[in-house]
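Folding follows sequence. Below is one example:
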Amino acid sequence: QVQLVESGGGLVQAGGSLRLSCTASLSRFTMGWFRQIPGREREFVAAIHGGGGRTAYTDSVKGRFTISGDNAKGTIYLQMNSLKPEDTAVYYCAAARSWATMTALQAPSADYWGKGTLVTVSS
């Protein structure tokens, strides 16, 4: 079984920061983050592949969120700065067999999912 374990969610004030972590020993997979904002469908947030050599972000988080990885630890991170109330969501760690799957323009997706960690941003 593929196991993705994310952590780091919590309650923060608008303008604050959080760092999410996801541990998964999937060296050949594209890794990333999705989120589900209340009342919306799950959406792509960020992806990383090739030991950090390639990254992608959804427009709404560019300049505020940074995805990174630690190969030795088998962990990826999502550093979230300048958080806004609209960032409130359950954030899911995800793994995909291909970069194209996770970053598809019309329907980005993944093959494996973590259980999610809740991020709440208060105003």
The first strand starts at residue 5 and ends at 7. The mean pLDDT is 93.
